[in-house]
Amino acid sequence: MKQEMKPESVSPKRFRVQLTDEEHRTLAGEFGPAKRKALQFIAQYADALGAERLVEIKKAQIFVGAHHYLRTLNSTDIDEVISEMYLNSSEKVILDKLGCFTQTDVVPLDPENWQKMGIAPEQAQLNARYKARFLAAGAAEGGTCASYMIGFIPMMGEHYVSTESHALLFMNSMWGARANADSIEASICSAVCGRTPLWGNHITERRRGTHVIEICSNPISVHDWDLLGYAIGERLPSSAVPVLVGQFQAPDLERLKACFASMATSGSVEMCHIVGLTPEAPTLEAALQGHCAEASFRVDRDNVADVARRVSQQGRMKVNFVSLGCPHYSLKQIQEVSTWLRGKKIHADVVLQVWTAIPIRENAVRSGFVQEIERAGGNVLTSTCPLVSQTIPDVPALVFDSVKQARYVTSCTRSKVFVGPVERCLEAAVSGVWTGGAS
Amino acid sequence: MRDVITISGRGAFPGVVEGEALVAPCSVPGWGDVFDLKTGAVRESGNPIEGQSVKRKVLILNGSRGSTGFATQFHRLRVSGVGPLALVFPRTDSRLGATCVVLGVPAVTDLKEDIFELVSSGDRVKVDGDRGIVEIRKVHD
To answer: Looking at residue B102, which CATH number applies to its domain?
Structure first.
């Protein structure tokens, strides 16, 4: 393996961040090499941020498994990969124990139906080795990006970490929970050492709204909220905290899930107030914590229509692949797909995938929804998505109901990518043709 | 014209290094195959630095974008031997804080002046992560 410069060779021996006795003992190796490496990363990260001290976390959601990017290291030794790519350590250490409740994020395959996805057995075996290593260290299998839908719910003021950009935006905003969009490495190190820098969203004053956004686009559908989130995110600078105001129907979980996913794609938003809806924004003044906004802007129907034109190919085209469920679908969304497909049949040339979490799929089986979708010719899959599993088929046209999935897929395919409301995606799945039209 | 333009800020990762600037006014995205790991070239279509390599450059990034995989893109560059020499970014953010650590290169942030008005790709830039100072030597007036 090639290594240009090892971080240890230039890392400071002493940190600017103030550490407790226990943290000093961790750095001295008293609790083992993995915790020492993890806390070393977190202390360096705290110094990079200018944090004064660390804070204890009780919950972590981490992106671990045989993910494709890990191949960069060109090693078959998973402990060597875990050491370098997760703990930022060129010295191999064994990750033997996690420092707080930890559940896994998405993995690169459906653990039950990987063969249906065309995943090679070696890849499934490699993922099983990562899973075994993390379960032995105390992790629980989560297997979803929308962790809050399966009970990973940090409460008001609770400090936690998450590798899922939209989920932490959701949990920070809707429940007043506290996390930063750290990085895969920092979140894993926090899970191992149980600490994160006391900085950014962990501090009350840093959660105040910075930008007031007047919503004038009259968002109704999940897709409207998806496009709106993208339009907001792309106009905000790094670390901005938007405050949404205006006359609009209060969004539900599915609408917010879509809105936050696209907002955390086009921008780097980690916290969003919605006046009258989110707990830290009973009023605009409360959301701004008595300060003036740094800037204000409106988002109208034209802005949203402009996003719709840019994120999707336009026109009519034969399609072979339709994927729904980024972020993972709720039980309600699976029910809606199942109801829509009643009495219909997916076109013989089209693959329809619906993505969700393991327990939600189980509930959908017990409710008969999965059977209805399968009868129509679709699949309900879990724990991953086309992007994370890198199973995007090489076909002329791909259809998604998610702006986030569509944007990231566009960067790694030559296929035409269409994105639209779920009903239009399902129409394309049944007819085999994307028909375009106004959003 | 000043011979050397000095911008003060805050050191985000220690060390001192000098090299050629590469200015990324739109930063890079946090997910996807952002870089060519053989050359260090930016692959994002439409990015102002599309096709340009970050290898051994003083990379001046205007913030971060998107996914929590942002630092990981740079981690992959380092283990592939094509990482940048130093990092400069105008304002601290969590993704870039973690990026400094995975790269382990001198870094300066929280700049007191708008560096994008003062620096161009190709300029010689010295990054002092110990004292939090960036020095720019213009190559073209």
So the answer is: 3.50.30.10
For chain B, what is the domain count? Answer: 1
Which tens digit of pLDDT belongs to each residue from A68-117? 999 999 999 999 999 999 999 999 999 999 999 999 999 999 999 999 99
Please answer yes or no on whether A2 and B107 come within 8 Å at the CB atom.
Answer: no
CA distances from A37 to A90, A92, A291, A342 (A): 10, 10, 40, 54
- For residue A266, list chain B residues with Cβ-Cβ distance below 8 A: 65-66
Q: Flag if B101 and A44 touch (Cβ within 8 Å).
A: yes
Phi, psi of A297 (to 5 degrees): -155, 165
Smallest Cβ–Cβ distance between A165 and the set B67, B92, B101 belongs to B67
- Domain membership of residue B11 as a residue range: 4-137
B46-81 residue pLDDT tens: 899 999 999 999 999 999 887 889 999 999 999 999
* Tokens standing for residue A32: 């083992």
In this prediction, residue A437 has a pLDDT band, given cuts at 50, 70 and 90, of: low
Of A12, A162, A268, the CB nearest to B95: A268
DSSP secondary-structure letter at A272?
Answer: -
Higher pLDDT, A330 or B64: A330
The per-residue pLDDT for B1 is 54
The answer to whether A75 and A63 have CB atoms below 8 angstroms apart is no
- Residues on chain A touching B110 (C-beta within 8 angstroms): 50
pTM, whole model, 2 decimals? 0.95
What are chain A's domains?
7-202 (3.30.499), 208-309 (no CATH), 313-434 (3.30.499.10)
Angle between helices A331-341 and A358-366 (to 10 degrees): 50
